Amino acid sequence: MIRIVSACALAGFLSFAAVGPALHAQTAPAQVAKEREDLMKGLWRDYYRDMSQAAKGEGDPKVLAVKATEAAAQMKKFGTLFPAGSGREGAPDTRAKPEIWTQRAEFDAAVDKMVVETTAFADAAKAGDREGMKAAWPKIAEACGACHGGPSKSGGKFRFEE
Ligand code: HEC
Prior knowledge:
With 162 residues, the protein is mostly helical. The protein has a single domain (28-145), classed as Four Helix Bundle (Hemerythrin (Met), subunit A) (Up-down Bundle), CATH 1.20.120. The protein has 5 helices and no strands. The protein starts with a helix and ends in a 17-residue tail after the last helix. Bound molecules: heme C (HEC).
């Protein structure tokens, strides 16, 4: 009996495995676009909103050091979520502009800049250096602006206006 059950489970698994990759290939661009959109939405909500308190000399440096370290990792990950074919040709709802793929070096540099400025903030926070955190904040805001404007519906060099 046990043998029959596990044979059925195995057959089920095999048929899923056969269908799985084809299905995945079809929806991959939309999936990756959704992933990077969710990541971007979370950036402000989960990390940078708290970090922005440092501009007013507020916020706990210990907490903000952790947030900034995580934010830098998120930004690094963001840079990996733009495979070929995941612009509007594959993911019609994406706000990622074609320039991301045609001017890739500039886009990658904008990602790097974001990581560098966020890491500088994290280093200042780790050292408990409030002045350093305050000085790092406007550079972070400027780095966001290299790709798009501040308001969430705004467009920019690398993002379509909503
Ligand atoms: C390297 C370029 C780049 C940088 C730097 C950048 N963004 Fe984005 N952002 C994008 C792109 C591209 C999209 C559109 C993604 C998509 O639709 O696939 C986006 C989308 C967004 C969205 C909208 C998500 C949605 O609903 O589509 C928000 C909010 C956002 N970014 C916030 C920020 C904040 C805050 C910063 C700075 C802390 C920042 N971004 C820095 C490129 C960037």
